[in-house]
Design goal:
It is a single chain. The chain is mainly α. The chain folds into 2 domains: 62 residues, no CATH class; 95 residues, no CATH class. 65% of the residues lie in helices and 2% in strands. It is built from 10 helices and 2 strands; from the N terminus they run αββααααααααα. β1 and β2 form a beta hairpin. α5 packs antiparallel against α6. The chain is globular. It starts with a helix and ends with a helix.
Length: 175
């Protein structure tokens, strides 16, 4: 985030009046969002048309008055901190909220996670760990309570995770 303050007066970091994205994958997903906003894409152009990340940007741009460049640039900063929620919920299951608060804070500021979810990164990484932790939380909750109402939730989050990140299959199997 600090690099944005450092680069705010440098025109080399801007395109179309907005900060440029920082990864190749970001531009890949941006193409899908752009094509969805245009309403079409060329056949066999490998556009991630209807990919979850592109779809979320499409709907945000359709509903709210934000430019596509802004939505893509700031999206990871808005979604990445959600990792704290399953961390807190897991710690609550073990009656260790103080440890959970520390773990949630650390999970958001750890350098590896911070780099992969920084402004402009715009990749599936912004929710990959969050989905995995929600699956773990829901399995713990199911085992702790044995309530029927929780039986389908882990499967729902596995489905959401596979929808969000198609390469999550190996990680899901390890859970």
């Amino acid at each position: 985030m600090l690099w944005v303050l450092w680069a705010k007066d440098m025109p080399e970091f801007y395109f179309n009046g907005e900060f440029m994205l920082t990864t190749n994958d970001a531009y890949y997903y941006a193409e899908g969002a752009r094509d969805m906003l245009a309403g079409f894409h060329q056949q066999n152009d490998f556009s991630p048309f209807n990919h979850p990340i592109s779809t979320i940007v499409f709907y945000i741009c359709k509903i709210l008055p934000f430019k596509i460049e802004s939505v893509m640039f700031y999206m990871s900063a808005l979604l990445a901190p959600l990792i704290a929620l399953p961390v807190i919920l897991i710690s609550n299951e073990f009656k260790a909220l103080k440890a959970g608060a520390v773990a949630a804070f650390m999970s958001v500021i750890l350098p590896g996670y911070l780099v992969r979810t920084s402004l402009g990164y715009f990749d599936s990484d912004m929710l990959n760990v969050t989905f995995a932790l929600f699956i773990i939380y829901l399995l713990i909750r199911l085992l702790n309570t044995n309530e029927q109402k929780f039986i389908g939730l882990p499967g729902l989050f596995v489905s959401l995770y596979l929808w969000w990140y198609q390469s999550s299959y190996a990680l899901i199997l390890s859970i």
